[in-house]
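Researcher: Let's run the pair from yesterday's discussion. Sequence first, then tokens, for each.
Model: Starting with the first of the pair.
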Amino acid sequence: KEAITVGAVSKNSEWAYFSSGYDYGSYIKPDVAAPGVAIISARASGTSIGNILDDRYTSVSGTSMATPHISGAIALLLDSNPSLTPEEVKYIVEKTSLDLGAPGKDIKYGSGLIDASKFLPPTVNLLLRYRLDFPKIVFRNDPVNLKITAKIPSAVESIHVIVTTPANITY
């Protein structure tokens, strides 16, 4: 649960058949997806992994090719805000990903395709200042639990929340 697990997609954001996930009941893996199909990579002399392109490069597929995309994006995120906790990093990576496949987190794409462009400091700081957690999928007439966490240096004077039902009834 503490680690960020990675799924792989093609350059067209299609699920890679070798990228497996699982629903453990209390959590779903992978957490997020990244490009991992036909990734051009350096190769050591004398090796034959993947589709060899020339003496120095090969084209390889795997979640091991998707993971460096996630690591690099997280490095940029931490460079913009080194005080982030591992929990905050995982939250930001998942909440800013582009949802693919079935709505919500699923066993093929996790929370979706990582989108490092959303890691800009103003976006990151707003995500952490007003953290709103709710299910991505809600069925009609089922109760919805909302959790609001506010990190505000000064005292909070008031919070105003408006909830509108699918029938446009406002509370």
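Model: Moving on to the second of the pair.
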Amino acid sequence: CARANEAAELDRILSEHHLDEAAASAWQPIALEVAGVARSFLGVEGPSACEHAGPGVELTRARFEELVVEALDSIPADLASHMQNVAVVVEDRCLDAPNAWHVFGLYVGTPLTKRTRRWRGSPDKIAIYQEPICWHADTEDKVVAKVRQVVIHEVGHHFGIGDDRLHQLGW
């Protein structure tokens, strides 16, 4: 399984360089990201290549789409009424990112704060990625929570809120 091989390789690298536990903890996310980019560059599949990909939750596309609709419905009406010219779609995963298994959603478009009254652009798009969200969760409740977090985060981008501020707000 790719995850087991990745963990074994990481352990080997960390012990080979004599890193203590604190240093190893600090470097682990970076090492995992580098390993993911290398696997992507070499054309090695992500978690789906494993016989057992981990604790992931399997949901039908219809059920996952219901969760996205529920998350959108949870946005207060006075805020949701300002969403303009944006399509929210469910896709398997982000095909353009080397770390696709860690990309849960993506906003593509012109934020409302950057538009003028004369703005006439194509519709914005919010993509919610089912495979990485389900793969990283071990219960359906965690999928529900992650979908809501990702939907609100991406809607925040539609309103012109940047990543730093969204993270400060817990989204």
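Researcher: Give me one sentence on the second I can quote.
Model: Strands lie at 86-91, 105-108, 124-129.
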